[in-house]
């Protein structure tokens, strides 16, 4: 593509012109005019082409907008000039009217055939142009030929013509002919991103410096359809991104996909699975047959159809219509090879390149000019039919002789290579590649830049550079190519050793040859223009076929080609679905109407007799480009999917920008998924592409759910095709289909019930009953231990079918059918018997042994009688059997009314109640994908930048079940907590998501608590929903009818004051009744480790840790006079929650909750952990002020002492003590009154304020309760210690009035004395009349001076001790003693370990010795036993031999006796033997 610099277009110019309008010349200032030079800027943006609409095309205005009568404007493409491949250099752009002078341009001239190779030899150096020409030829052959011969539109109704993709001055419809538009506006219909698109182009055509057209053209230069179609294809191809450093001009873009919408599947060809490739090709493309065989098969088929009678014809017609209704997937198979010479820098490719180049050359192809080829037939026999063997006379067939050849050495049978060939068709087989290479020499630097090589002697480009560019096609045989290659290599070797002068002469000769070749090319072009195109076309196209074919050996097929292109026709699939997503950054540039038209499509690719089931959805993609879909399929047979993934990887970038910023390809990944597990399976399919690419996904029988994730830079499109029904979409679309039983489960259940039905039907037939019973046992497959579960399932099935309990006759019939004497309802009867009152005589007494034995005898007797009755009734032919059979048949009628329902219930009861039964059936794999769910939703409060509690409800679980809660919310942060109310344990979470857990029944249920942090802007009308996912119904029930969404929040804030105990705050909690609340604590810094604790009487009952934020999800505060902990619904005596949700503590419940006094004193405490909240020095003054306020708050007589005179002496204090007492007591009373009043000041003291500064370190405490119970809880600051100190000081003051003033004066006098000593002055007493009171600032200065004069002992203090101690000799001696004791204890332990190891070593040796002795003893015993066996065997053998010798002697004696009695009978035999001896 061209390398001219380009500018970015504005976002408003991304949308193409609306239908029916033509852009004005003034409005499109960025459009490059025809007179613009190649170096001038062009527009490089990529518009999102609108979806194709016939109505809009019919209403299109093809003429120019008449701005003024005098001016005439031509249409210029608003998207700018099309980008050409880098190997083609554009010199000028011309209109058709500028270079076609003698004739009037036409779009289509010849509708029968065309030639795109003869006039385009100068374009074949471009890989993209070769692909365009080859794929147009392939489509023409596939759609418009039959049995290798061209046909007309009358014989083939679905003919394809390339010019039908062009629209100009015509209406949209099949078979239209576009006309030449002098205004220069044309519309191209191409398939892109999942639907047909409307692409507008102009008629500006590029030319090089030699006046050669740089777009494909026919021999008739005035025929415009190849150029216009190529411009549209180049626009679509510009969206594809070739692999970096590959040197290719296209990536995975295919022209056939753009022209037809067929789904391209790319299969890499490897030599190690050649047999699979051959099998695939034999099944999907036609097979070569001899003409005689094909005619015989057709005649035989015709005879068979005529020989059938009318009934058979009717049946065949029905089957034909049935098969015609079900479409058969159709495919077109092609193969392509890559230009490996572009990758020859990799050493591993050199051998492969050489083999591929040699193999391609044998079949008339070139490695340098890669292009796709069409695979038409396979052949496993010779091309010519072998001669038939001569007839053999019948007399020779009676006893045929085997022909044997006598040789000295063994002869191995010859190994015959099988006939395995593939027919390929291509327009470039045996083409004039020498001419193409000679023309490439004219390109100079461009060609060498595109096909540079590190190994000059092995480059095939240089092989074709000779002095005879115009070589006839008949001369391009492999022999001539080899000679040319040898000559060229020799010339290059000679040129390397020449001098600089020779180089200059060679350069001059090269320039002359280039000028001569340029003149020849100009003359050739001028001659072609002046000649009659129709005559040339009729001559060439009639003689030469469009595609040349050749047979390629299977062994060389994988060497020649690297990729198999399989194009699937989507309209031949019964079920298909599409979805599209567009990134927000792209969709923001488009209006809503244009966006919907651009991405959603439901049009079929081609017309079909049956419209396949399709479903199309459109979504806006997230910013990161990721999308999530789910695929659900349930099938009894293996399922195959063709998944086509289209990705838009770049958007409006020029070639220079593509090289600077690498483009990320789109990814599609499919992996097994289950909502009941957090473990994701391995990917079963992965697709990576920058254009459109498909893959075949095969799934085994059963139910499958796949999680399909896609990612692309700008937009994606997914197209799924299958012959089996499936569901594809988001969770809301797929999950409702998972609550039913799988097809394999239903099939297995139906098989079991049908086998049971056969047993019932033949229950009185003595011959059929045994086989039916065995068939039933094989079908359900349960063992003896699970047989009782099957019998109970049969009983429950009959009860459900009848809708009542069974009568005695019906129960006996079921017992006879199953062979189980149990009543199947013993649990119900036992429950009824327990509910009834015992007889009066048995109240309060137990049965004796004799009574138990008598009851056992009665039960055994009754059971024996029942078993005998069942065996009698199960025997066919008896009266009881007939009665049972009649009862079973009457009961079975109700079962047959809904056979599938009762079959599923039967198997479900077996699986749920029988251990290990599910493992007997293949449907066990489908259980992980069977789910049911319930949704709970509440509104989200409209607040911003705040923590909120959204959901808090209790669920009761009635039986063991696996649950997986999932939340759906638009809030940025939302976390769900699940608490076991009996143990206060929290269900573990993984990445803030509650993992699937097996919930067991408990007394108080499980509390689900959801917390969230809102964003910067509040959500208006937002909804929060939770989906509770389980295996089957019934799911846990909500304790209330509807979820509560109204909560009351008590919020307290305050500044952080560092303390020695690391306690942030303490608040008391008082409740008037049992109260359930959620406690949350948050700090202004997010990296502070904090611990939140609830204390009861200073005993920790529950705690949790967090970083910057901590929550206790649920806790029940008990009233002071309430009941015990167990009555509140939350048992706290098991310990508290840690950050991970585990129990902490270990104290007994009596210590943690003094239930004997029933007085609870709750306190919420927050503390800093790990010293993780350091403060800056800039906050020192602020923290000191907070501490001063806290200190003033602790003063009881602070106001009174500040107002007293500092000059009052000791005697005057005694005199005025009586007078000052009433003032102090008066203020104390006022303080007591103020203390009782709940003012706002008391709740925000000691660092707690109402309007705090958010820039200062602060904290927030929230206690959330139900709105209806907000008045039953009170939260205030913990001032218990402060109140104790106040009470103590007031008690002292009341006992001794004036005590506080005296203490204050003494303290001031002492501080003055210390200051005087520090300054070297005499102490100031009270008689001197010096002032006694000092300000707090002076006291701090004095303390600083004293600390400076004294010695600093801090280095000697041990910080690990609770209180500082001075390290002296005693402490050092104590430490030395402790260290020596530790050393001694360690030595003792070490000696013990060494001694123990020594003993173990001795023990091991003794054990080894005993093992050896035992082994030797075993060997001796074995030898003795072996000798004993051998002796017995030898004795037996001797006895047998003696017996045999005795028998022989007896036989010989009898023989001699017979010979003596009959000597004449032996003579003939003796004579014969004598003759034989002679």
Q: Tell me the β content.
A: 15-25%
Oligomerization status of the protein chains: single chain
Number of DSSP helical runs: 39
Provide the structure class: alpha+beta
Terminal-residue CA separation: 105 Å
Radius of gyration, in angstroms, nearest whole number: 50 Å
What does this structure look like?
By secondary structure, this protein is α+β, with helices and mostly antiparallel strands. It is built from 39 helices and 46 strands. The strands form 13 sheets. A six-stranded antiparallel beta sheet has the order 10-15-11-12-13-14.
Topology:
Layout (H helix, E strand, L loop, with lengths): L5 E2 L34 E2 L10 H5 L33 E3 L1 H4 L27 H18 E2 L2 E2 L15 E2 L17 E8 L2 E8 L2 E3 L17 H13 L17 H6 L2 E6 L5 H11 L6 H17 L2 H16 L5 E6 L11 H15 L10 E7 L41 E6 L6 H11 L1 H6 L9 H4 L14 H19 L3 H31 L2 H11 L4 E6 H7 L2 E6 L6 E9 H4 L4 H8 L16 E6 L4 E10 L3 E10 L6 H6 L5 E7 L12 E5 L2 E8 L2 E10 L3 E8 L4 E3 L1 H4 L8 H19 L6 H13 L6 H16 L5 H11 L7 H10 L13 H25 L5 H18 L2 H15 L18 E8 L7 E10 L4 E8 L4 E8 L8 E2 L2 E2 L2 E3 L6 E8 L9 E8 L6 E2 L8 E9 L7 E9 L3 E9 L5 E8 L2 E9 L1 E9 L18 E2 L5 E2 L4 H4 L9 E7 L11 H15 L3 H6 L6 H6 L1 H20 L3 H4 L14 E9 L6 E5 ...
Quick description:
The protein has 1478 residues and is an alpha+beta fold. The chain is built from 39 helices and 46 strands.
Give me some keywords for this one.
six-stranded antiparallel sheet; 1478 residues; disordered C terminus; extended; disordered N terminus
């Amino acid at each position: 593509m061209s390398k001219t610099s380009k500018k970015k277009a504005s976002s408003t110019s991304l949308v193409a012109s609306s239908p029916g309008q033509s852009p004005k010349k003034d409005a499109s200032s960025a459009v490059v005019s025809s007179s613009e030079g190649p170096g001038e800027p062009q527009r490089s943006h990529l518009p999102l082409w609108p979806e194709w609409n016939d109505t809009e095309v019919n209403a299109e205005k093809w003429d120019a907008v008449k701005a003024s009568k005098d001016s005439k404007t031509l249409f210029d493409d608003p998207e700018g000039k099309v980008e050409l491949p880098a190997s083609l250099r554009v010199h000028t752009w011309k209109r058709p009217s500028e270079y076609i002078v003698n004739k009037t341009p036409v779009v289509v001239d010849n509708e029968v055939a065309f030639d795109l190779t003869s006039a385009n030899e100068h374009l074949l150096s471009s890989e993209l142009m070769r692909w365009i020409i080859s794929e147009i030829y392939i489509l023409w052959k596939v759609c418009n030929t039959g049995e290798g011969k061209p046909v007309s539109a009358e014989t083939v109704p679905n003919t394809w013509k390339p010019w039908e993709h062009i629209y100009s001055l015509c209406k949209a419809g099949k078979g239209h002919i576009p006309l030449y538009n002098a205004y220069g506006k044309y519309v191209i219909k191409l398939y892109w991103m999942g639907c047909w698109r409307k692409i507008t182009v102009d008629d500006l055509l590029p030319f090089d410096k030699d006046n050669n057209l740089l777009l494909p053209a026919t021999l008739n230069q005035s025929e415009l359809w190849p150029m216009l179609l190529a411009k549209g294809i180049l626009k679509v191809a510009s969206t594809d991104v070739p692999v970096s450093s590959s040197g290719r001009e296209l990536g995975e873009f295919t022209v056939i996909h753009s022209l037809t919408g067929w789904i391209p599947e790319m299969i890499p060809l490897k030599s190690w699975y050649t047999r699979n490739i051959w099998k695939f090709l034999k099944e999907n493309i036609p097979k070569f047959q001899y003409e005689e065989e094909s005619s015989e098969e057709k005649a035989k088929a015709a005879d068979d159809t005529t020989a059938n009678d009318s009934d058979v014809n009717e049946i065949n017609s029905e089957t034909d219509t049935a098969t015609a209704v079900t479409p058969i997937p159709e495919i077109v198979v092609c193969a392509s090879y890559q230009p490996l010479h572009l990758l020859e820098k990799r050493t591993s490719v050199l051998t492969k390149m050489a083999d591929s180049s040699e193999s391609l050359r044998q079949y008339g192809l070139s490695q340098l000019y890669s292009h796709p080829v069409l695979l038409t037939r396979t052949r496993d026999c010779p091309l010519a039919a072998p001669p038939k063997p001569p007839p053999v006379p019948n007399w020779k067939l009676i006893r045929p002789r085997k022909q044997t050849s006598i040789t000295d050495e063994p002869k191995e049978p010859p190994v015959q290579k099988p006939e395995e060939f593939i027919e390929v068709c291509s327009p470039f087989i045996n083409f004039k590649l020498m001419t193409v290479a000679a023309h490439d020499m004219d390109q100079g630097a461009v060609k060498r830049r595109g096909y540079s090589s590190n190994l000059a002697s092995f480059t095939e480009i240089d092989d074709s550079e000779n002095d005879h560019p115009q070589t006839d096609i008949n001369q391009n045989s492999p022999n001539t190519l080899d000679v040319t290659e040898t000559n060229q290599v020799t010339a290059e070797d000679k040129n390397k050793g020449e001098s600089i002068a020779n180089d200059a002469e060679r350069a001059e000769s090269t320039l002359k040859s280039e000028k001569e070749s340029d003149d020849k090319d100009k003359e050739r072009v001028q001659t072609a223009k002046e000649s009659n195109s129709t005559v040339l076309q009729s001559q060439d196209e009639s003689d030469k076929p469009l595609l040349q074919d050749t047979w390629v050996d299977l062994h060389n097929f994988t060497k020649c080609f690297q990729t198999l292109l399989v194009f699937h026709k989507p309209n031949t699939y019964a079920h298909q679905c599409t979805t599209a997503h567009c990134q927000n950054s792209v969709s923001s540039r488009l209006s809503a109407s244009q966006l919907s038209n651009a991405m959603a499509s439901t049009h079929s690719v081609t017309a079909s007799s049956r419209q396949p089931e399709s479903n199309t959805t459109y979504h806006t993609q997230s910013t990161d480009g990721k999308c999530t879909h789910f695929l659900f399929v349930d099938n009894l047979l293996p399922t195959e999917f063709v998944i086509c993934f289209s990705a838009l990887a770049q958007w409006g970038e020029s070639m220079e920008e593509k090289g600077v910023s690498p483009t990320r390809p789109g990814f599609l990944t499919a992996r097994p998924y289950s909502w009941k597990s957090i473990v994701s399976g391995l990917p079963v399919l992965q697709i990576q592409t920058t254009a459109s690419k498909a893959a075949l996904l095969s799934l085994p029988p059963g139910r499958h759910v796949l999680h399909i994730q896609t990612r692309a830079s700008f937009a994606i499109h997914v197209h799924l095709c299958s012959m089996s029904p499936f569901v594809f979409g988001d969770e809301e679309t797929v999950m409702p289909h998972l609550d039913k039983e799988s097809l394999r489960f239903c099939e297995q259940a139906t098989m079991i019930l049908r086998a049971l039905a056969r047993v019932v039907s033949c229950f009185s037939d003595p011959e059929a009953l045994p086989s039916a019973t065995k068939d039933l046992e094989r079908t359900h497959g349960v063992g003896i231990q699970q047989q009782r579960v099957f019998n109970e399932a049969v009983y429950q099935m009959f009860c459900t079918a009848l809708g009542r309990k069974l009568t005695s006759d019906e129960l006996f019939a079921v017992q006879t059918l199953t062979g189980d004497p149990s009543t199947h309802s013993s649990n119900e009867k036992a429950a009824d018997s327990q509910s009834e009152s015992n007889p009066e005589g048995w109240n309060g007494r137990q049965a004796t042994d004799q009574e138990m034995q008598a009851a056992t005898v009665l039960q055994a007797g009754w059971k024996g009688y029942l078993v005998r009755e069942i065996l009698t009734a199960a025997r066919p032919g008896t009266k009881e059997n007939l009665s049972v059979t009649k009862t079973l048949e009457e009961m079975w009628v109700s079962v047959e009314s809904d056979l599938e329902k009762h079959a599923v219930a039967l198997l479900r009861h077996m699986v749920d109640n029988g251990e290990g039964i599910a493992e007997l059936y293949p449907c066990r794999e489908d259980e992980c994908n069977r789910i049911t769910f319930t949704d709970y939703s509440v509104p989200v409060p409209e607040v911003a930048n705040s923590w909120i509690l959204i959901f808090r409800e209790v669920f009761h679980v009635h039986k063991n079940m696996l649950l997986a809660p999932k939340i759906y919310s638009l809030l940025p942060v939302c976390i769900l907590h699940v608490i076991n109310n009996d143990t206060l344990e929290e269900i573990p979470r993984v990445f803030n998501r509650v993992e699937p857990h097996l919930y067991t029944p408990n007394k108080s249920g499980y509390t689900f608590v959801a917390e969230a942090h809102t964003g910067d802007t509040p959500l208006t009308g937002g909804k929060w929903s939770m989906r509770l996912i389980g295996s089957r119904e019934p799911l846990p029930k909500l304790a209330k009818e509807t979820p509560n969404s109204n909560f009351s929040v008590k919020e307290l804030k305050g500044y952080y004051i560092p303390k020695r105990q690391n306690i942030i705050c303490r608040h008391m909690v008082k409740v008037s009744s049992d109260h359930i609340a959620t406690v949350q604590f948050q700090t202004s810094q997010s990296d502070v480790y904090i611990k939140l604790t609830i204390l009861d009487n200073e005993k920790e009952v529950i705690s949790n840790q967090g970083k910057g934020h901590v929550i206790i999800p649920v806790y029940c505060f008990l009233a002071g006079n309430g009941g015990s902990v167990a009555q509140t619904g939350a048992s706290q005596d098991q310990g508290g929650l840690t950050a991970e949700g585990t129990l902490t503590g270990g104290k007994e419940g009596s210590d943690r909750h003094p239930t004997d006094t029933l007085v609870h004193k709750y306190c919420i405490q927050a503390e800093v952990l790990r010293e993780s909240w350091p403060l800056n020095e800039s906050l020192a003054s602020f923290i000191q002020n907070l501490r001063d306020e806290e200190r003033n708050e602790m003063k009881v007589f602070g106001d009174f002492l500040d107002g007293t005179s500092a000059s009052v002496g000791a005697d005057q204090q005694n005199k005025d003590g009586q007078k000052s007492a009433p003032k102090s007591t008066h203020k104390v009373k006022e303080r007591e009154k103020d203390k009782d009043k709940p003012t706002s000041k008391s709740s925000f003291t000691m660092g707690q304020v109402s309007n705090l500064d958010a820039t200062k370190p602060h904290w927030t405490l929230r206690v959330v309760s139900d709105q209806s119970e907000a008045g039953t809880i009170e939260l205030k600051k913990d001032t218990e210690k402060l109140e104790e100190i106040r009470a103590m000081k007031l008690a002292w003051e009341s006992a001794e009035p004036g005590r506080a003033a005296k203490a204050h004066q003494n303290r001031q006098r002492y501080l003055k004395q210390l200051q005087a000593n520090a300054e070297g002055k005499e102490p100031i007493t009270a008689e001197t009349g010096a002032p006694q009171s000092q300000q707090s600032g002076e006291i701090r200065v004095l303390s600083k001076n004293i600390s400076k004069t004294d010695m600093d002992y801090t280095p000697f203090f041990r910080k690990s001790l609770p209180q500082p101690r001075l390290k002296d000799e005693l402490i050092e001696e104590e430490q030395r003693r402790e260290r020596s004791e530790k050393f001694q204890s360690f030595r003792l332990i070490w000696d013990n370990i060494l001694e123990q190891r020594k003993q173990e070593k001795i023990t091991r040796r003794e054990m080894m010795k005993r093992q050896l002795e035992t082994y030797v003893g075993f060997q001796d015993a074995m030898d003795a036993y072996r000798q004993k066996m051998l002796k017995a065997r030898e004795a037996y053998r001797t006895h047998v031999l003696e017996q045999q010798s005795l028998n022989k002697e007896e036989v010989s004696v009898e023989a001699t006796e017979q010979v003596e009695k009959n000597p004449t009978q032996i003579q003939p035999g003796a004579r014969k033997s004598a003759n034989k001896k002679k």
